[in-house]
């Protein structure tokens, strides 16, 4: 995916050009800058030979990361700008997006919410810029899953999703103060059947079932959404009543087996990276769209619900 460009392992070879402080053991320590053997550039803080603290890393492909580091990994709060113009602002752990963050795509789409091990995971919102449609709900390992709602001005749909597709009971809420109740069914996509792909899917499913019966293969989870589309079936229309709405999405539990890195950085005076203020700088400025304000609200709500 385009958003992964520039992430991952940077050049760890200490050979290259380095100008900056060192400790008594000769390790890079303090402020400095370096041109790495692969052409990448880093300016910022080091601790015992590794990038630690605040720093700017510019990749040779044009990507750049500015933010916090621990033991040569992106760790803390930082901003990653990619060659295609997309940008991520938020939390990092072990070189991966994790925590709360906002991702701005080249086409104007915006995702803002929870991340885990580099993927959208947990509560979040996604704005489809071209049509001004917004989805609010939960993701599981990068895919929409569970309760949520999608806003099509002036209509709002409340329901549940399975592997990115609406499925099951739900309701449309209109600005005329009424609700249409019904459910989404997963049905075979006629376009795929026209090209014979429906039969392939059926044969593949039969082969998997035969292997499971013979014991020659471990149980394989079958994707019931594959080759299918969601079709709405309306049942009735009522006046708007909040108690008729489906359950709201809730934060997902996170189980991280990787231990946290202890903070071991140094205080610097020469290199300063200003942290954006959570409060609007000027009186009267609407800063409600600041990802930092949303991050703070997200962390507070997660602690309360946890």
How far do the termini sit from each other? 32 Å
* Helix and strand run: EEEEEEEEEEEEEEEEHHEH
Average pLDDT figure: 82
- The beta-strand count equals 17
- What's the gyration radius in Å? 24 Å
Main beta sheet, described? 17 strands, antiparallel
Class by SSE composition = mainly beta
- The number of helices is 3
Low-confidence runs (pLDDT<50, min 5 residues)? 1-5, 268-288
- Strand coverage percent: 35-45%
What would the principal axes of the Cα set say about the shape?
elongated
Give the helix proportion (percent range).
Answer: 10-25%
Short recap of the structure:
By secondary structure, this protein is mainly beta.
Tags for this entry?
mainly beta; 12% helix; 306 residues; 17-stranded antiparallel beta sheet; disordered N terminus; 17 strands; 3 helices
Q: If you had to describe this structure to a student in words, what would you say it looks like?
A:
- With 306 residues, this protein is mainly beta.
- 12% of the residues lie in helices and 45% in strands.
- It has three helices and 17 strands.
- It has helices at 190-194, 197-214, 291-305, and strands at 17-22, 28-35, 41-47, 50-58, 64-70, 73-81, 87-93, 96-104, 110-116, 119-128, 133-140, 143-152, 155-162, 165-166, 168-174, 178-188, 228-239.
- It has a 17-stranded antiparallel sheet that branches.
- The radius of gyration is 24 Å and the shape is elongated.
- The two termini are 32 Å apart.
- The model is unreliable at 1-5 and 268-288 (pLDDT under 50).
């Amino acid at each position: 995916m385009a958003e992964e460009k520039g992430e991952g392992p940077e050049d760890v070879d200490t050979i290259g050009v380095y100008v900056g402080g060192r400790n008594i053991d000769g390790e890079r320590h303090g402020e400095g800058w370096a041109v790495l053997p692969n052409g990448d550039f880093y300016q910022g803080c080091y601790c015992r030979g590794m990038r630690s603290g605040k720093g700017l890393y510019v990749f040779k492909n044009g990507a750049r990361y500015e933010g916090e580091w621990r033991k040569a990994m992106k760790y803390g709060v930082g901003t990653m700008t990619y060659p295609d113009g997309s940008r991520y602002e938020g939390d990092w752990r072990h070189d991966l997006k994790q925590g709360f963050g906002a991702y701005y795509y080249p086409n104007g789409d915006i995702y803002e919410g929870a991340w885990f091990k580099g993927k959208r995971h947990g509560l979040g919102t996604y704005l489809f810029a071209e049509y001004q449609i917004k989805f609010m709900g939960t993701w599981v390992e990068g895919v929409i899953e569970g309760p949520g709602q999608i806003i099509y001005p002036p209509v709002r749909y409340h329901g549940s999703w399975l592997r990115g597709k609406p499925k099951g009971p739900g309701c449309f809420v209109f600005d005329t103060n009424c609700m249409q109740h019904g459910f989404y069914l997963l049905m075979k996509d006629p376009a795929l059947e026209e090209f014979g792909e429906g039969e392939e899917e059926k044969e593949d499913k039969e082969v998997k079932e035969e292997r499971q019966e013979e014991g020659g293969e471990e149980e394989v989870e079958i994707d019931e959404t594959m080759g299918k589309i969601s079709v709405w079936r309306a049942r009735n229309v009522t006046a708007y009543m909040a108690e008729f709405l489906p359950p709201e999405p809730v934060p997902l539990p996170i189980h991280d087996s990787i231990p946290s890195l202890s903070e071991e950085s140094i205080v610097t005076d020469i290199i300063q990276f200003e942290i954006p203020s959570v409060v609007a700088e000027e009186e009267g400025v609407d800063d409600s769209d600041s990802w930092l304000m949303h991050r703070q609200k997200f962390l507070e709500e997660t602690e309360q619900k946890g």
